[in-house]
């Protein structure tokens, strides 16, 4: 009976060593790479996509507006392997989260009929174009990103005075492209 217990303990330790070696291989080859599959769960894969939503944009004293946008939804891999003290190897921790990979900033104009100070308020809204599994430690989509500001189609090249009959608003857009992982 004691021999059977020793075999099970040895097998469990061997599996832990194998798992640690596989994780080291993943981490050593590409420390910031997106992991799509894990050796322990070959039938599972990470997924992340942009899902259509209706977003309400509001401001105190203004009429809220509904706009079409996207939200990131998915399941990305994370893991943590127990450490030792003193530490014999690097900490084996990996965390990916489903978050925006490409966004576009757009001005949404709200009508504020009851306000004498500002009959309209412009709100800057982040529109999500694409999502992907990215490092959880990523602070924001603007960090190290390529920013591009451009006027939308039909926007005037020079600012004009507000016109009460003017119902269309010229929007400025700001594209944000996250840097490639790796």
From TrEMBL:
Belongs to the DAN family. Residues 50-137 form the CTCK domain. It comes from Cyprinus carpio. It is found in: Secreted. Its main location: secreted. Residues 155-182 are annotated as: Disordered. One of its GO terms (cellular component) is extracellular space. GO terms for biological process: animal organ morphogenesis; sequestering of BMP from receptor via BMP binding. Pfam families: DAN. Residues 1-29 form the signal peptide. It comes from the Eukaryota. This is NBL1, DAN family BMP antagonist. The keyword Signal applies. GO terms for molecular function: BMP binding; receptor ligand activity. Keywords: Disulfide bond, Secreted, Signal. Gene3D superfamilies: Cystine-knot cytokines (2.10.90.10).
């Amino acid at each position: 009976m004691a021999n059977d217990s020793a075999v099970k303990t040895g097998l469990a330790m061997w599996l832990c060593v194998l798992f640690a070696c596989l994780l080291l291989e993943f981490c050593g080859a590409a420390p910031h790479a997106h992991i799509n599959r894990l050796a322990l769960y070959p039938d599972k894969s990470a997924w992340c996509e942009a899902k259509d939503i209706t977003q309400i944009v509001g401001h105190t004293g203004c009429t809220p507006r509904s706009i079409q946008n996207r939200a990131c939804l998915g399941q990305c891999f994370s893991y943590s392997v127990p450490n030792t003290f003193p530490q014999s190897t690097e900490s084996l921790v990996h965390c990916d989260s489903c978050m925006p990979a490409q966004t576009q900033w757009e001005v949404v104009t709200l009508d504020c009929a009851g306000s004498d100070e500002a009959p309209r308020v412009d709100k800057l809204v982040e529109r999500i174009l694409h999502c992907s599994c990215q490092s959880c430690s990523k602070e924001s989509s603007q960090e190290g990103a390529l920013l591009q500001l451009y006027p939308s189609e039909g926007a005037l090249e020079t600012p004009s005075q507000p016109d009460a009959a003017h119902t269309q608003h010229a929007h400025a857009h700001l594209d944000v492209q996250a840097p490639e992982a790796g």
